[in-house]
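Intended use. Records like the one below are meant for learning the mapping from a protein sequence to its folded structure. Do not use them to infer anything beyond what is encoded.
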Amino acid sequence: MSEQPAWLESGGDNPFTDESVTTTAEAPAPPANTQPYEAPSWAQTAGEDAAKQAATQAAQDPAVQRAVIGAAGGIAQDQANQAMEAQKKKFSEMPKPWFIMRILNWLILVPLAYVAWAKAFESGGDEPMNTYVVAFYIFTFTILICCFEVMSGISFIAENLAKLFGFMYTVTGRLVFLVMTGLLVISFENDGAYIVTGCVMGVALYNVAVMLYYPEWTKQTYTEHAAHFNDDNIVNNHV
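Structure written out for the chain above:
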C-alpha cells in the first residue's frame, strides 16, 4: 500500500482549506439607478406637437363644435329654468304686504323721474345750478330704486347692490334714503313736488312697517343678493 502524502496527514498544507480558494468571491452589486428616465427632447417635442395637432383638429371638427355648443346651451337652459323656478317659488311664498311694498316702490319711480325732469329741462334753462344738481341726485336715486326692485333678479346687479348699497337692506338705511329723496324733491317748491314728496314719505313709512313685521324676508333679500360674497355683519344686523 502506498503512503499518503504528508500534506494529507497534517492538513496544514492542504490547498483546499485556504479560504481564498474555497470561498466564492461575491461580485459587487451594480449601482442603483436613482435618476428617473427622461425621454429624449426630440421625443417630447414630437409628442407635444402631436397632441396640439390632435386638439386643433378636434376643435375644428364641426361635429365636436356642435356637441360643445349643444352642451353649453343645455347647461345655460338648465340654469335659466332653475332661476325661473326659484323666482316663481319666491313670489308664491312672498307675503302680500311685502309684494305691495315692492309695487309701491316701482310706482314712485315715474313721478320721481318726471318731477326732476320737469324742473330741470322744461324751465328753458333759467334755473340756478343747484336745481340741476338736485335733479341729478333725484335721477340717481330713482335709478337705484329701479335697480333694487326691478333688476335685482340679475345676479351681477344684485351682488353689486348688496355690496355697495347695503344700507338699503336695513330698516334705518331704507328710511333715511327715502326721506332724503323726499326732501330733495320738496326743495323744488311747486305743487307737483309737494305731491310727490307726500307719496315718497308714505312709501317710506310703509317700507319701514313691512320690513319690521317681516324681518326674515329682509335678511333673506340681502342673503340672496349677496350670494357671491361674504358680509355676515350686515346680514345679522338688518333690523
